[in-house]
Design goal:
This protein is globular. With about 425 residues, it is mainly α. The longest helix is centred in the N-terminal third of the chain and has 32 residues. It contains 18 helices and no strands. Keywords: Cell membrane, Membrane, Transmembrane, Transmembrane helix, Transport. It is found in: Cell inner membrane. It is a multi-pass membrane protein.
Length: about 425
Amino acid sequence: MSFSRGHLIDLSPLRSSPAFARMWIGSALAGIGGQLTIVTVMLHVFELTHSTFAVSMIAVAGLVPMILAGLYGGMLADAFDRRRVALIAATVAFAATVLLATLTWTRTETIWWLYALSMIIAAANSVGMATRTAIVPRLIPRDELAAASALNGIAFGLTVMVGPAVGGMLVALTGFGWTYTIDVVLMLSMFLGLWTLPQLRPEGSIVRPGLASLVDGWRFLRRAGNIRMQYLLDITAMTFGQPLALFPALGTVLLGGGAITTGILTAAVAVGTFVSSLFSGRVVHYRWHGRGIARAVQAYGAAIALFGGVLLVGVFLPPASEHTPHIALIALACLALALSGAADNVSSIYRNTMMQAAVPDAMRGRLQGVFIIVVAGGPRVGALYAGTLATLTSLWFPPLLGGFLVIGLAAMLARLSPRFRAYDALNPEP
């Protein structure tokens, strides 16, 4: 087998399903705009408050609405046409972004408006992401699910690689209003990808949204030990190993370079995601997904600890500023973050495939809702951990301590679950 065929990403899902290809392209373009807004809101709040804790509270403020939206959105996806549910969620996120741009252009924005609209966007995206992910197994064969997850890693890598870097430069060169406006334009592509999908009602027994549907989903999750374990591993990694809330302060105080450094650091994670997806040919054919997740999470913890070590070195260097950044230190920090992005992406490929292959279609929306809460909620709790601990200690301490905690806790959890370590993609069991 040649290197190109054996190691490069498998494009089969794009060829076998035009509907999946359109949704993939629309999600990627809209995702770039969404990342513009994420980094811009962080910089906007930091400019208004000059507080890393206030930046971390953006993520925390959206946690409860995102949890509620993820749970209820999953129930909607298991009861109604998933195409329609995804379109409504995209419309809400679009309207909130339009309002964010309007308030900024009219100079009537406040920190409370930034928090509130971030909460609405997070909730709408939670519903939309859960629904779109539940749609994928209906568009492609089961043996192409891992390849589809790797393609989503490519899309995510591009969005986070391009969005934050461009966002940081746009804020520095043009201001906040133009950056939000560009997101509004890019979000229109999401509607094209969703509008052209066929009607996609859930298969199997349908439970109307409400308490009975929620209880039904939780009962299934109680029996699904493999799904629970991947949730626990991801929560561990994101709670103690997510330094995103530190980036604005790092660009201003420790590494220098200001908003541009903030964007570059965020993009570095995506570079690792993109490269690992590009060379995922062998990864998607590895059948022991439980072991793959556990090892990838430990590798993620090691990369975050390395990032913390790089920041510790910066403490002993002369002070940096926006115009006199520590270039070598920024490069080393980006390398560590790229390694973390690669490790997290490998874990994500196996986690997504496990969710889509092992969970029945009629239950997939609710479980995807919980999955999105874990994936998106973990970093928000991690933002609180990093922001609070950095405020009490120093910017280098949360990632250094957190990386070692991730390594140890992931090893312990995997050891306690032999069934998870034995999970076989050829015989998927929840």
